[in-house]
């Protein structure tokens, strides 16, 4: 470990009990995607399984198959007052999912699908039992060497400080520096996405929570794979990336001292919130002078009281 990073880490460990360290010389560039891989949130999956999972969520009407996991956290479709779902709707939507898959398969290269989830071994770190939630994403390189990422919206019942006033966009998010050479491809993908209108999905509904969210598939287009994934996950409301500029308001748990340390001793102070529906991770980090990253990692958990 770099000597200056080690010294700063020692100070940080006095201020908090859950310090985070990223050694750039060993772990490479620090970014959202590499962070998620290092935390074992990322697993390769089949492209067909990704499309199947997106459609399963619509069929279930819940983020996970509560019949398999034996979690009765939401009413079944047959019990819902406004159940705008039937086999005709399912067949129509399946057709557009198939069109998207066919379009990308035939017009892109380096197709990769990932399943994002919290490792089962991490569940023991939480107080309550939770369903095994996962979300599938697809990335593909265009013929003009840009990248497209598709991801579904992700429910969030743990991060109360999120910007609830800005619902996930239904339009493909574009990085400004990405080439316009793929305009026809992006336009066609967007036309299919427009036919997959948002569907109301139940989260924890019983117990007075009455939680629903609008589920739909969205996309991001960027110059690099990592940028496309980062943009897509932010658009899906699974990830929030912020640059904190305000001090903590209290001295509880050394919060003010910690904030001052982050502002004065580290550069590019950044906060990452990653939501896995009813569980979440937060990383507040900054860069040390030698180029490493240190900070604080914390978890959040939704407690269901029926």
How many DSSP-defined strands? 13
Strand content: 25-35%
Average predicted local confidence, pLDDT: 89
Strand order of the main beta sheet, please?
Answer: 2-3-4-5-9-6
Question: What would the principal axes of the Cα set say about the shape?
Answer: globular
SSE string: HEHHEHHHEEEEHEEEHEHEEE
SSE-based structural type: alpha+beta
- The portion of residues assigned to helices is 25-40%
Q: What is the gyration radius calculated from CA atoms?
A: 21 Å
Number of helices: 9
Poorly predicted spans = none
What can be said about the biggest beta sheet?
Answer: 6 strands, mixed
Describe the structure concisely for a colleague.
This protein has 306 residues and is α+β, with helices and mostly antiparallel strands.
Provide structural commentary.
With 306 residues, the chain is α+β, with helices and mostly antiparallel strands. The chain is 32% helix and 26% strand. It has helices at 3-15, 24-27, 32-38, 47-60, 66-69, 87-107, 183-195, 225-235, 255-265, and strands spanning 19-22, 42-45, 108-117, 134-142, 147-152, 173-174, 199-202, 212-215, 217-222, 239-242, 267-276, 279-287, 293-301. A 6-stranded mixed β-sheet has the order 2-3-4-5-9-6. It has a 5-stranded antiparallel β-sheet with strand order 1-13-12-11-10. Strands 7-8 form a two-stranded antiparallel ribbon. Strand 4 and strand 5 form a beta hairpin. Helix 4 runs antiparallel to helix 6. It is globular, with a radius of gyration of 21 Å. The mean pLDDT is 89.
């Amino acid at each position: 470990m770099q000597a200056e990073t080690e010294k700063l880490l020692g100070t940080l460990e006095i201020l908090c009990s859950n310090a985070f360290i990223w050694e750039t010389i060993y772990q490479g560039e620090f970014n959202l995607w590499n962070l998620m891989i290092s935390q074992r949130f990322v697993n390769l999956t089949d492209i067909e399984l990704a499309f199947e999972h997106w459609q399963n969520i619509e069929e279930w009407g819940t983020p996970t198959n509560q019949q398999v996991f034996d979690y009765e956290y939401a009413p079944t479709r047959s019990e819902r007052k406004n159940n705008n779902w039937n086999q005709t709707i399912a067949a129509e939507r399946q057709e557009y999912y198939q069109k998207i898959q066919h379009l990308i398969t035939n017009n892109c290269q380096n197709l990769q699908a990932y399943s994002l989830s919290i490792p089962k071994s991490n569940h023991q770190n939480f107080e309550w039992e939770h369903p095994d939630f996962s979300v599938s994403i697809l990335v593909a390189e265009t013929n003009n060497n840009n990248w497209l990422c598709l991801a579904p919206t992700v429910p969030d019942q743990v991060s109360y400080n999120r910007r609830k006033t800005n619902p996930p966009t239904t339009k493909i998010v574009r990085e400004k520096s990405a080439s316009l050479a793929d305009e026809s491809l992006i336009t066609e993908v967007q036309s299919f996405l427009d036919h997959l209108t948002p569907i109301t999905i139940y989260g924890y509904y019983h117990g007075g929570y009455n939680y629903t969210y609008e589920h739909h598939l969205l996309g991001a287009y960027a110059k690099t794979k990592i940028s496309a994934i980062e943009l897509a996950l932010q658009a899906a409301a699974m990830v929030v990336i912020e640059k904190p500029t305000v001090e903590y308001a209290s001295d509880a748990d050394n919060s003010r001292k910690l904030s001052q340390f982050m502002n004065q001793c580290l550069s590019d102070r950044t906060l990452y919130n990653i939501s896995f529906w009813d569980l979440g991770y937060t990383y507040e980090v900054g860069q040390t002078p030698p180029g490493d990253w240190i900070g604080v990692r914390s978890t959040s958990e939704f407690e269901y009281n029926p």
